[in-house]
Amino acid sequence: RSSKGKFVNGKFVNVDTMHMEGIFRAKELGLAESGLADVVFSPSPPVASILFDLEHQARFFALFQHPIERAISTFYYHQIARWEENEKLLQPELVDVTIE
Q1: What's this model's pTM, rounded to 2 decimal places?
Q2: Which residues fall within 8 angstroms of residue 59, CB to CB, at 6 or more apart?
Q3: Predicted local confidence at residue 68, as pLDDT
Q4: What pLDDT is recorded for position 9?
Q5: In the 3-class helix/strand/coil scheme, how is 18-72 assigned residue by residue?
Q6: In order along the chain (100 residues), what is the average pLDDT of each group of 10 residues?
Q7: N or C: which end of the chain has fewer CB within 10 A?
Q8: Do 39 and 60 form a contact (C-beta atoms < 8 A)?
């Protein structure tokens, strides 16, 4: 079973649905069937849809960031992303550059 715990006056289920491996693990653990999660977040809804079936259906909703705000956020993220495994994400030459 997936681990369940308390978090800031609420509950969480410890499965990682950000990556395919985590989605497959959640499927193996029976996440949808367990009824433990009210919301499942994934950047890949088509892949995450394998968690659900006719008896355990999902509803899809999306949150979108304004494209300009997203570009600005990405720009600043690339300045500080030292923890990223992908070396191309960190661009230290941008550290002293501003958009203003």
Answers
A1: 0.59
A2: none
A3: 94
A4: 58
A5: CCHHHHHHHHHHCHHHHCCCCCCCCCCHHHHHHHCCCCCCCCCCCCCCCHHHHHH
A6: 51 84 93 89 91 92 91 82 67 74
A7: C
A8: no
